[in-house]
Amino acid sequence: MSESIRKIEGIGEEYQSKLEYLGIHSLNELLSMTKTQEQRNELAERSDIPVGHIDNWASMLDLMRIDGIGFQYAELLTYSGVRSVEDFRKRNPQNLHDILEETNQKHFCGTVPTEDFLGNLIETSKSITNIIERY
Fold it and tell me: CA 126, 70, 124: angle at the middle one, nearest 5?
C-alpha cells in the first residue's frame, strides 16, 4: 500500500497536507502510525485532525489488507461497524450482508458483496495477522 494517502475516503487536500507535514505520505505509513489507540490519539493531537477520522482511516486500511477488499468495500465495512480484520473474521456472512445492504442505502458503493463472497473473504482474513488494536 505505497499509494497516496489521498486515496482514502475523507482525506482531502487539507488533511493530506497536515499528514504530509508530519511525514506521512503513503497508506503504509499511515497504517503504521495508527495501530494503537494511543498512536491514533497522538496523531490526532499532532495533526489537528479529529480522532474519529483517524480511527475510521485506520479501520479502512486494516480491512484493505484482506485480498478482495478495496477502498469502497473498506469504507462500507467501516461505516457498517466492522473496525478491523480481527472484527471482520468474527462476522457471520449472512448477518454482515444484511448490515451492509442497510448501510449501503446511503450510497457508499455501487454493489454490496454477496454472502458467498463475504464468506470467502472471512475465511481469507483468518490467515492475516492482527495489527490494529481496538478498545
Answer: 15
Q: What is the span of the domain harbouring residue 126?
A: 69-130
Give a yes or no: residue 19 inside a domain.
yes
Residue 135 lies inside a defined structural domain of this protein: no
The total number of structural domains in the chain stands at 2
pTM value? Answer: 0.91
Collect the ranges in the chain with pLDDT lower than 70. Answer: 1-2, 135
- List all residues 6 or more positions away from 93 whose beta carbon is below 8 Å from its beta carbon: 115, 116, 118, 119, 122
Side-chain-side CA neighbours of 77 within 13 Å: the count stands at: 30
d(CA 36, CA 49): 16
